[in-house]
Amino acid sequence: MKNKNFISILIILILILTSKNLHADDIYFETPEILSFNEGNLLKSNKGGKAITQDNVEIIADEFEYNKITTLLTARKNVIIIDPVNKTVLKANKVLYLKNKEKMSTIGKTEINVENKYLIRSSNIIYERNTKIISSEEFTTIEDDKENFYTTEGFKYTSLNSLLRGKKITAITKEEDEYIISQGIINLETSELRGKDVEANFHKEL
Question: Checking phi first, is residue 99 left (phi over 0); if not, alpha (psi -120 to 50) or beta?
Answer without folding.
Answer: alpha
